Amino acid sequence: MKRINNPTSPSAEAIATALTEAVHEHRVLPGMKLSEDEVGEIFGVSRTVVRQALRTLGHEGLLTIERNRGAFVAKPSTKEAREVFEARALLEPQTARSAAERTTPKDIEILRRHIEEEHAAVAAGKSGLALKLSGEFHIEIARIANQQTIETFIRQLVSRSSLVIALYWRRRNALCESHAHHALLKALGEQDSDTAEQLMKGHLLDLVSQLDLSPQPDEPHSLRDALLA
Amino acid sequence: MKRINNPTSPSAEAIATALTEAVHEHRVLPGMKLSEDEVGEIFGVSRTVVRQALRTLGHEGLLTIERNRGAFVAKPSTKEAREVFEARALLEPQTARSAAERTTPKDIEILRRHIEEEHAAVAAGKSGLALKLSGEFHIEIARIANQQTIETFIRQLVSRSSLVIALYWRRRNALCESHAHHALLKALGEQDSDTAEQLMKGHLLDLVSQLDLSPQPDEPHSLRDALLA
DNA sequence: GAGGCAAAATTCGTATACAATCTTTGGCGA
DNA sequence: TCGCCAAAGATTGTATACGAATTTTGCCTC
Residue B33 CA to C30 C1' — how many Å? Predict the structure, then answer.
């Protein structure tokens, strides 16, 4: 399957993006195996390129790569889940504060549309899409804060939060239609950095409180559970 | 050069570690090109493995990978340099606080030896080694805090700090024999979390103050400079 | 029929071949 | 002599081949 200079064959980056989106939208769930051959055939590239993409996602913590066994969508333990939100609690409130100090009307417009899309997704019952958009809202704030380094970290943390939510969210069907993003938008628009920081802090605490991280962190066997249920 | 199951041929991870150390010790400086063939020949593996290692370091921000051009040791701009230390300022003080709350005598012993090695390196004039050890001290604190996620971030930030120091440190020859690590050790040993947090905060500010981030961030041409000097 | 072992099939790891791109160099013309 | 263009050389990008490890499957024994 040699395809020289063929623009229809996506690059490693494109594959990584596609896989990331699939995970963010919960169309691919924690524990699922991503076979190199299978992914390669789907995207029409050789394993060489697929491996690049998989390793990229591995570095971001989205996949767990086991030698001679393959790449699996990561299944963060409850400890990891807590760590992810602890890290976000350290980074994001201050980032929201910085963002508030430099938000432009153009940024506000971008965020407003973002929230609109989120609402539309929720209304259409596309909870996966809604979740992905919700995460991107946080990344957008890091972008406004003009902190590329921290943005990269937050991007990773949001990614892994998707996995955490897939595993530990309390009420699967409940719409997480919170007012938090609206409130943040307002604070940013008013350049109210104190409020922005506090809102972000509270928002993250709210998210954690919606997780069920108490019981046993190690799932026994998914197949067993499925058949015994 | 096929070497099947040959234990003398290092894995991608081993190569990545070796390269990372070389950069941390300033034996490989920002801007230097890492040719795949060259690195492969040095370590006795094919380009396949080298490329893996280089991409790993690329994801950590230690290398800049330009398509069809190769991998170069990253040259952080002054903005990036500031961002790195701003991120550290968000993560490390709180991490030092957490570490203080759970430091064991064994940890203290490890840190004490670490500082000893640092002193020995400084005394022996091995400034590169001293710098590497100094960075590892910070990572060790994150380990004690039992925060793997944050430890990974700090590891990246310390890495990139090495590059920043290579580029922007004011007094090249001056020994940075600060008392900061000693003081931190003492606070950790006494489980004094408030002091540990404050010391770490101050330590990071001290480091930044030793950098010259004001002038033009873009160097013109190294060869030109060398020949006109 | 259950357990264990061995062979087959699948999948990953690495080396290598070749294509594509970039860089350098040589030559040509103004 | 300077500048530009083309060809040669060097380096990276991707596909593929084959070895190694794992997983599965089938068979044999108890």
Answer: 38
